[in-house]
Amino acid sequence: MKPAVLEVMRMNRVCRMVLVTSVGSFILVIFYFQSTLHPVMRRNPFGMDICCRKGSRSPLQELYNPTQLSNTAILHQIRRDQVTDTCRANSVSSRKRRVLTPNDLKHLVVDEDHEMIYCYVPKVACTNWKRVMMVLTGRGKYSDPMEIPANEAHVSSNLKTLNQYSIPEINHRLKNYMKFLFVREPFERLVSAYRNKFTQKYNTSFHKRYGTKIVRRQRKNATQEALRKGDDVKFEEFVAYLIDPHTQREEPFNEHWQTVYSLCHPCHIHYDLIGKYETLEEDSNYILQLAGVGNYLKFPTYAKSTRTTDEMTTEFFQNISSEHQTQLYEVYKLDFLMFNYSVPSYLKLE
């Protein structure tokens, strides 16, 4: 079968997407060739064929052809360049073939009205961002994100994801829509996932699905109750499970502790904006400003007393051996490098 070669983007680099159709599904094979040029600010890489929304400028036009260059725009260019440099340095993109399937696109939420695509990463404010996306795509159904119950924000039918589109529709949106994601210090995110999924008694589905397996593999002389319930997994056991080669061969990580690199494919899909959990409010409201809704929609902010902090993360790693710390760092190394997070001072790497 002859593949259809479609141009995805131009931005001092060339990216070509080869789409191969098959029965009942499709495969995206992306070739990503990056240039050595790194200007501080680049013009709109998508040419002049972006159709304005109802007479207004699209988010991409606002980002790459700003009416006034800001420090925020320059900061996000630096973050994009960091991803580009990491992809090249680690040979995960340049001249290397990568196959993406529909399953790889299920985290990319599409907002048709404002021409945006958001790749959600669990444990990085994704509940609130899904709420915001529901307001943006609800066409008047919602006005206040915080009025939307958290469980409703995670109902898959409430938001449309990129894997639900046809190949030409996917290509058009990847080319013309503003794509963004939010990231967090990898080990802080990991501890947050552990605390939420394994220390809360109400998360029985995770205890049954993963807790029982972790106890069975990682705990010597486990009691029958622990094997049956899986509700008392220790952080050391969770880490041992993650670095166990058998785990990685068996199935992909659950999305709550999967790497951002594997969830959002930033070496194969060009993200225009990379927000950070550490600057969540500023980055979120900048995106809403680019979308043209900043005057009436603000990202929800509230102090969460149970939030996982750096100090808390340090405490969790105290009982992890240097060998296991080193192996775990290798699992999440690309996320550390790609999003410019330094090696934590508490780590004892071998």
UniProtKB/TrEMBL annotation:
* Source superkingdom: Eukaryota
Give the EC class as a word.
Answer: transferase
Give the way it sits in the membrane: Single-pass type II membrane protein
Q: Which residues cross the membrane?
A: 14-33
InterPro entries found in the cross-reference section: Carb_sulfotrans_8-10, Sulfotransferase
Give the keywords, sorted.
Carbohydrate metabolism, Glycoprotein, Golgi apparatus, Membrane, Signal-anchor, Transferase, Transmembrane, Transmembrane helix
UniProt-listed Pfam families = Sulfotransfer_2
A cellular component term, taken from the record's GO annotations: Golgi membrane
Record-given protein name: Carbohydrate sulfotransferase
Question: Gene that codes for this?
Answer: CHST11
